[in-house]
User: What shape does this take?
Amino acid sequence: MPHPHMVYIKTNLQLPKEIRAVQQGRHISGPVPVMNPGAIGAQVVDERGNPLPPEAHEGPSGADKYQDPEVAESYDAKRENTVKHQEEQVIIEEWLSELPQGNWVMDCPVGTGRFIPFYHEHGLLCRAVDKSRAMLEKAAAKVAEGQHISFNEGNVLDLAGAGFMENSVDAAIMIRLTRWLSPEQCVQAYAQLMRVARKQVIITMRVTEGHPHVRGYDLVEAALHNSGWQIGRNLGIPSDQGYRIVEFVPCG
Ligand SMILES: C[S@@+](CC[C@H](N)C(=O)[O-])C[C@H]1O[C@@H](n2cnc3c(N)ncnc32)[C@H](O)[C@@H]1O
Assistant: This one.
């Protein structure tokens, strides 16, 4: 049985000394089939409806910049005081606070861990995943004594590879990532989140037409099709209705 006052960390990161590192493992073993976006209708097409190869619309991710410790170091200072950050923080925390204490939230990408203090205050347990070790190290520094959290270096497009079984968490959130994923990858990521979550998925996305980072409702529809999930809530932030916070919930 996990000790109630011990922090459980599955990681090979250099963590602050006060955090007790314990190999957790048991609840996240075993492979999970990875959803193939092609199988759920995701396709990027040209104006005539012909499928486009990924290299025609993906471009380099750019998200590799988050591997840089200097980028990780300055991340919070650049965002924490912005209206967008604060407004989305309020909405997401409000939705997550409806979960009962003791529920598990998978936060991918956790980034520098903006919700980690909230999880602790609300008694939510967290599995934090990010591709960047530098960002995970910043996130780990926000862990409170006695907080239950695990950290994994992993890719949202392969949560099985990060050790996540189907239905293994209560909620899964993916905040501020869609712009770094191609449209096809967004569909794949949404499917991955719905696979690991039992009750709730929360994502953010830009729907403004013509915006360079637009990831529209067509991608959500492709992922939801035949998934057994549907849109729950869908809210624009007060200062920008083109930036949406969208919840998926199981049908019925
Ligand atoms: C803009 S930050 C968002 C972090 C956090 N969710 C927030 O709202 O502050 C993007 C993060 O996504 C991570 N990332 C990029 N591609 C990823 C992927 N395919 N899987 C997991 N993490 C990824 C980056 O390392 C970076 O930490």
In short: The CA atoms of residues 179 and 213 lie 5 Å apart. Residues 83-96 form the longest helix (14 residues). Residues 38-250 form a domain with the Rossmann fold fold (CATH 3.40.50.150).
